[in-house]
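Q: Hi! First time doing this. I have a protein sequence and I read that you can turn it into a structure. Is that right? Here it is:
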Amino acid sequence: KRLVIIYLSDHGEKPGWTRLEEKIDYQMFRIPCLIYFSPDIRNSNIYSILKENSKKYWSNDLLFELTYNLLGIHNENILDSSKDISSPNYSLTINDFSLVSGKYLVKDDPYNVKQ
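A: Yes, that's right. Below is the predicted 3D structure, encoded as structure tokens:
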């Protein structure tokens, strides 16, 4: 039986802080994302590509593209494979991500670890 389970939060937290737009810390933008694959999928091309791309920047805003590919649904009219982290065409970098309607740039995050 093929099984994929995706867990992710819609936002992160910084203990002791509330989510007020005037008081933001970049740690609040970091969210966990866990994907479990049943053993039969772990030998698939999608699994290999996700593992290869696992150190790249990604946002939960892109869950739509990932989910469609995991379900085997391919529609070029509504999906952009350059935004699908399970695609070999995934091309987004740290420079492509911003937060709070562009107010914060991910590349300015002081917690970023150089890749």
